[in-house]
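Cross-check.
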Amino acid sequence: MSRHIGWALAAIAVALPMTFPHARPAPGSVSCGLGLPPGAPGFAEAQAQLALEAKANGYLKVCEANLERYRIAFRPSAPIMADLSFQPVNLSSTQFAHFKSLGAMIEPDNTAHTRLYRGFLMPDGHTVTLFEQDMSVDGTSTSRAPEDEPERINGMPARLSVFQAPSGKAISHLSWVERRRAYELWIDANVVDTPLRKQLFALAASLPPSVPACPNEVPPKPARMGSDGFPAAEPIPMTLTQAEIDAMSDRSKRPCK
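Predicted model, tokenized:
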């Protein structure tokens, strides 16, 4: 299963094979790496400091390495789209259809083929990336506190996180969940106080309803949030069927339920 990189103010982050050290950010400094882990001394203070910075500036100041996780090595779309275990949302009637396709990508360790990235080049030269995950297939779930999702996309709670490096390079990252489909949409620009912000939200709102690959799936129970604001680990059941054991080790073996 792919490694999600937890980053303050970006609850759903792109998972790429990269390792960052944990460190406490200094006031007014450039954030680089994962930050303090949940539960560590100073974690709450560091989170509050980052939230204050984001509120004051409209974005977080980060190092170039933190932006690299959003740069996807796209490949030709046809063979990737043919090997998915779910039906990606149809973009033919959206603004995406007017952009140049840069290809697609599936993470190598995503054996269930439920996580898809598609890249596009806008007429103005900006690159936008659309990520979607059919959680009905792999049985995963995602949870965030309501206060962390102040934006709305077609009435659904959403979160906008903007990151900018000292060089001026930036990423504006929008994330939301529609039923059992998790979405992320980002652009290689700082959209704060620019027309690009409205365009980014319009792109997200243009997506048609998704069709789950496992429509009769019984979704996992909502995650229980811990005192640190992160989902708390649930105890492992005392007994498991062989199918459940297989599904835990290899999501591609999880049957539709």
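The chain has six helices and eight strands. Helices lie at 43-57, 64-68, 77-81, 135-138, 195-205, 242-249. Passed to J.P. for a second look.
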